[in-house]
Amino acid sequence: MTNNVALQAYQNAVNGQKIGQKCPKHGTELIYIKSAKDPSTGRLACSECDKEALAALADEFDKKAAEEIKRSYFMQHSLASADVFKCSFDSFIASTKYEEAIKHNLMSTAKAYAAKPDAQRNTILYGKSGTGKSHLAMSLMNYVADHSDQKCVYVNVTKLFRKIKNSMNSDYEYWTESKAEDIMTGCDLLCIDDLGTESSMGRQGQEASRWVQNVLYDALENQKRIVITTNLSEQQLRRTYDAKLFSRIFRNSVGTRFNFDGISDKRIG
To answer: What confidence tens digit (pLDDT) does each residue in 174-205 have?
Structure first.
């Protein structure tokens, strides 16, 4: 489209006829351009107005391209189902004042992440399953991705370790351990979804394997802006992970820890 506008501007300059009038905005001489389809009609053109139109169109194109690149990065470097990417604060239906308060506070947290890309902050969404933690976590990530230039990554931890294990037996798996670490530490905001399921295998509170803890530690040590969802309580997390990893999960999270135990299971009913 920008090429078409540039070509039109060139044709205007070549084919235009001076009429002795000036552009009221720029003071430049206007030219009369005959319509290619109907020579009996035409329009007045200003070279400076045409330049501004071209610049505005190019700026719009650049913004759209940047948005598409950012959104593409988010989706290609995340491990989540297509339905999860559709989550937004608007689509989260709060049925109680408590749910509305958590939603409101997480919206404020999302705005803070978007406005302060250098602020080091962890956000913890914890409590029983089915209460909307993943929905609101993705809503937060989508907000930051849409309202800032930050690179966002959302990783479901079970999918992550399944991919890494697959890479040990296949040369075609993209998510190797080193690649996973690069992705999780190279983004501006990371979401680790369902922390704890990768180690407990459904038995909450079981200690995670040393390898699992090492992978998570590398990510948490080198990434200072993390959103975490987990079905485990603080006590269960303490039993599941060693002291170093536990401290990094809750690092810089005072005021941004959200307990979902007061919310009923939204998957039932």
So the answer is: 999 999 999 999 999 999 999 999 865 444 44
Angle CA(190)–CA(238)–CA(87) in degrees, nearest 5?
Answer: 30
* 124, 250 contact by CB (below 8 A): yes
d(CA 166, CA 171): 9
Query: What is the distance between the alpha carbons of residues 112 and 110, in angstroms, rounded to a whole number?
Result: 5
Residue type, 27: G
Residue 148 tokens read as: 């800032």
Q: Do the beta carbons of residue 92 and residue 136 sit within 8 Å?
A: yes
Q: Classify burial at 230, counting beta carbons within 10 Å of its beta carbon; exposed 0-12, middle 13-18, buried 19 or more.
A: buried
Question: What does the DSSP 8-state code read for residue 127?
Answer: S
Name which of 150, 180, 184 is nearest 165 in CA terms: 180
What global pTM score does this model have? 0.76
Q: For residue 267, give every residue at least 6 positions away whose Cβ sits within 8 Å of its Cβ, in sequence order, or none.
A: 130
Residue 2, CB half-sphere, CA atoms under 13 Å: how many?
Answer: 11
**Number of Cα atoms under 13 Å in the Cβ half of residue 100:** 3
Q: Tens digit of pLDDT for each residue in 113-165? A: 999 999 999 999 999 999 999 999 999 999 999 999 999 999 999 999 999 99
**What is the spatial distance between Cα 151 and Cα 235, in angstroms, rounded to a whole number?**
32
